[in-house]
Amino acid sequence: APGIEFCARNVLRIGVALLGLRITFAQVAALGWQPLVLVVLCVAITIAVSIVAARALGFEPLFGLLTGGATAICGASAALALAAALPAHPRKERATLFTVIGVSALSTFAMIAYPMVVKALALSPQAAGIFLGGTIHDVAQVVGAGYSLSPETGDAATLVKLLRVAMLLPVIVIATMITRARAAKAAAALAATGDATAPASRRPPLLPGFAVAFALLVVVNSTGVVPHAVQTLGSDVSRWFLVAAIAGIGMKAQLKELVTVGLKPVALMIGETVFLAGLVLLLMRWLG
Length: 288
Known about the structure:
- The chain is mainly α.
- The protein has helices at about 1-15, 25-30, 35-55, 60-75, 75-85, 90-120, 125-135, 140-150, 150-165, 170-190, 210-220, 230-250, 255-260, 265-285.
């Protein structure tokens, strides 16, 4: 049990931090301003719509933040990172496991289906890369879909996807601010009843340690001093650590609880995926 808990928490945070070795500022700058604006708008709008949709379906708004963040940013990695930053909840682990499974399945489906959409729409290699990188959830599936069409499409798709990964940091900050606000509200409620056991210092830091490490690794990686072998090693270690974290969360979750989630969460995640694809196509046309 202690080992499972260690994987579900500590190993998870290290894996998310090491994602910073995949991104450099030069990669972001090479894309130009249009993909940057597209990614920022897509992440913000998708998460906002997901929160509203989750509330309309009778879920906690934070469940919409979790699924919307996973859909809009980087799939399972984002789901795990956001879960680590969100406040504790009796059903958080089940929600996280469902989100990881759901977003991974939808990402695999998108890897197969979206290249056919690209062909049907007759998109240029650059536009196809922006579409695939802006819509498919996980990095590996983006790479697979992009390079299955052409090297130019694969390069553009990978860079746009890494830009989405970079959006993980500000979204984590927002999730942590929500956690701090809830902790402060709970502490104030306890203080009003005369309970002095919940001081404000119990609130989590505004920026979690793993988020700080993620940002620092992006900065260091952008200097060019990190050897390619170290970047590859860090990416591999990150992937394996996230796999271990998923396994830890899976061991802690009851499968019988997972299968009782019903159709609404499934419909929510499918709707988020379809919405993101439509939004990317719309913004691509609008931004030229």
